[in-house]
């Protein structure tokens, strides 16, 4: 199928908007690439330090005879998703040696778990950890001794931070290496019910803990379709994974074979060989459009709205919120994975997964096929799935038919004709809402607001029965400059209870929700934030707000609001404790959320 004219038109708009910044970026990358292998420019003393622990491979490194792969790892064994990375460096080094190359761990990057920090003060560091990861990767690669890189990371801010750094070092080839999702545990809808029962006081903490431990029970990513798994989808749609690598479980022979192949492929795509594929050429305008189409078709995480803008800027591409809207209108929703449905990512993968989706979207003309990928082919390679045949890794055509149409459908028979995200605009500012999990009867809500400055205040009001009515909860001063823009997913159980009691309820905030944003309508990432001149700072209890996801409207209908003086909160408590002292400069310099909320880009 020829490319859909709408996709072509949106891509051209992005290309024209990005012409100046993309051209300057590529010129920098070409100049650095022309310097040749990185190690050639190091003095003898520099090289001796870099190779001191490399044993018999020192000679090859000094002579520039073999590629040297830099491994950047986000391993820690507190994150279930990253625990499998413990043994990856040794495996990668062995695979590199077998392919005639060397590999070194260039450095580690921090990786925090938003599941641990949900509703806690540590969540105020979460978004900024993306920029810290980019900076730490920059330090790792600054030794200038590598011909390509393997990036080991999965979860919420880790992949975006690694992509920002990979684009900054875009003259280097790079492959992203996943570890896969944990096996299925307690179904996500059952877990959500237990959380609601606990919020209502129907069960105690012991039952809640039992359910949580049965849900998050082993190595691998959480199995719902949140930010971590949206990241993995994105890396495949953008050609930075090996085809079909995203959702293979940890500790399986196929997972090991894919890791070995990533190391082998990283040796082939360096400038020392004939298949030089620098990241700067992979991350062009077409790749970013493909990533956005994937986000819309799968009903992916709202966090990616922030991250994609920041990630693209690092490659010289200027995405705007309007691009998300335009591609959402163009892209059908093909998947129902929790919280958009009952299935988890393992069920999604079994139903056909990403090879099925990419194949059908290519046939529908909704993806660019003619892109560079780390696989060395166009995007059609990602309509294949990896298999082991006689202990040999091969790729075969992906499934043509969905194995479960309650989970996965074709573009011709989608769950809904448009994507899972919607931009919101009005006098309250600009925000985003995830509507793929929200029932149509909740797409339009007009109600008095209740204004809060902390999650604790919202929870206290819920327990006191003050939210048992039609209400739009406004939680302000949660933006990047106020307190680091924490996720507010801990409010979901309480607001879900209000909704289930038959009331119309919505959340409006300049903070974030989660990749697991659920069935309660939420206008999030509202910009400008309350601390930065946003109208949210002037709202009072009882002001009437209209949330209209059908038309994309977010507005205060009460007259005279603009003339009020803004509330000036006491935010001093946000500046200390749990390491927040160290991030004052980040809060002062963070960009607007509709521009990626970045510090380094």
UniProtKB/TrEMBL annotation:
Enzyme Commission code(s) on record: 4.2.1.12
UniProt pathway annotation: Carbohydrate metabolism; Entner-Doudoroff pathway
Keyword Plastid: no
Record-linked Pfam families: ILV_EDD_C (PF24877), ILVD_EDD_N (PF00920)
Binding of [4Fe-4S] cluster, residues: 155, 222
Cofactors (names): [4Fe-4S] cluster
Cofactor note: Binds 1 [4Fe-4S] cluster.
Gene Ontology biological process terms in this record: D-gluconate metabolic process; Entner-Doudoroff pathway through 6-phosphogluconate
Domain Dihydroxy-acid/6-phosphogluconate dehydratase N-terminal span(s) in chain numbering: 67-380
Presence of keyword Iron-sulfur: yes
Alphabetical keyword list: 4Fe-4S, Carbohydrate metabolism, Gluconate utilization, Iron, Iron-sulfur, Lyase, Metal-binding
Enzyme class, UniProt record, top EC level: lyase
Reaction(s) this enzyme catalyzes, per UniProt: 6-phospho-D-gluconate = 2-dehydro-3-deoxy-6-phospho-D-gluconate + H2O
Protein name according to UniProt: Phosphogluconate dehydratase
Source species: Jannaschia seohaensis
């Amino acid at each position: 199928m020829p490319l859909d004219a709408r996709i072509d038109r949106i891509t051209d708009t992005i290309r024209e908007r990005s012409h100046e910044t993309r051209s300057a970026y590529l010129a920098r990358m070409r100049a650095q690439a022309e310097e040749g292998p990185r190690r050639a420019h190091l003095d003898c003393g520099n090289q001796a330090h870099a190779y001191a622990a490399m044993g018999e491979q020192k000679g090859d490194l000094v002579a520039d005879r073999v590629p040297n792969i830099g491994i950047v790892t986000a391993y820690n064994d507190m994150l279930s998703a990253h625990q499998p990375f413990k043994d990856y460096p040794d495996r990668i080094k062995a695979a590199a040696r077998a392919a005639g190359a060397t590999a070194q761990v260039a450095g580690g990057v921090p990786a925090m778990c938003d599941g641990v920090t949900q509703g806690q003060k540590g969540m105020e560091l979460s978004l900024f950890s993306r920029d810290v990861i980019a900076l730490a990767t920059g330090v790792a690669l600054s030794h200038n001794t590598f011909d390509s890189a393997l990036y080991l990371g999965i979860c919420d801010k880790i992949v975006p931070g690694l992509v920002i750094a990979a684009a900054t070092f875009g003259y280097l080839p790079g492959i992203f290496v996943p570890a896969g999702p944990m096996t299925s545990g307690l179904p996500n809808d059952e877990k959500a019910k237990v959380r609601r029962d606990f919020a209502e006081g129907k069960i105690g903490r012991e039952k809640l803990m039992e359910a949580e431990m049965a849900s998050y029970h082993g190595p691998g990513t959480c199995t719902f379709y949140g930010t971590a798994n949206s990241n993995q989808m994105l890396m495949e749609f953008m050609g930075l994974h090996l085809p079909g690598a995203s959702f293979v479980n940890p500790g399986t022979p196929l997972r090991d074979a894919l890791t070995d192949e990533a190391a082998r492929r990283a040796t082939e795509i360096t400038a020392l060989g004939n298949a030089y594929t620098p990241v700067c050429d992979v991350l062009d305008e077409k790749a970013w459009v493909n990533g956005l189409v994937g986000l819309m078709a799968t009903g992916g995480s709202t966090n990616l709205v922030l991250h994609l803008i920041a990630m693209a800027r690092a490659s010289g591409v200027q995405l705007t919120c309007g691009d998300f809207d335009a591609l959402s209108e163009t892209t059908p929703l093909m998947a129902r994975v929790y919280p958009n449905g009952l299935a988890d990512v393992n069920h999604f993968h079994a139903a056909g997964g990403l090879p099925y989706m990419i194949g059908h979207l290519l046939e529908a003309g909704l993806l660019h096929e003619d892109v560079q990928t780390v696989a060395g082919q166009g995007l059609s390679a990602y309509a294949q799935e990896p298999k082991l045949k006689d202990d040999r890794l091969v790729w075969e055509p992906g499934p043509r038919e969905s194995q479960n149409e309650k989970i996965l459908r074709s573009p011709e028979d989608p769950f809904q004709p448009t994507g899972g995200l919607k931009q919101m605009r009005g006098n309250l500012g600009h925000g985003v809402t995830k509507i793929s999990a929200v029932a149509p009867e909740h797409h339009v809500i007009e109600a008095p607001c209740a204004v809060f400055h902390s999650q604790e205040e919202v929870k206290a009001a819920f327990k006191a029965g003050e939210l048992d009515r039609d209400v739009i909860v406004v939680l302000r001063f949660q933006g990047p400059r106020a307190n680091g823009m924490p996720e507010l997913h801990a409010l979901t159980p309480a607001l879900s209870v209000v909704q289930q009691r038959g009331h119309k309820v919505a959340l409006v905030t300049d903070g974030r929700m989660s990749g697991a944003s659920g069935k309660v309508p939420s206008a999030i990432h509202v910009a400008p934030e309350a601390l930065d001149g946003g109208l949210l700072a002037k709202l009072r209890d009882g002001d009437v707000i209209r949330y209209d996801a059908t038309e994309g409207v977010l507005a205060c209908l009460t007259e005279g609001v603009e003339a009020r003086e803004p509330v000036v909160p006491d935010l001093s408590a946000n500046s200390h404790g749990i390491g927040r002292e160290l991030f004052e400069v980040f809060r002062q310099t963070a960009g607007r959320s509709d521009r990626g909320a970045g510090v380094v880009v």
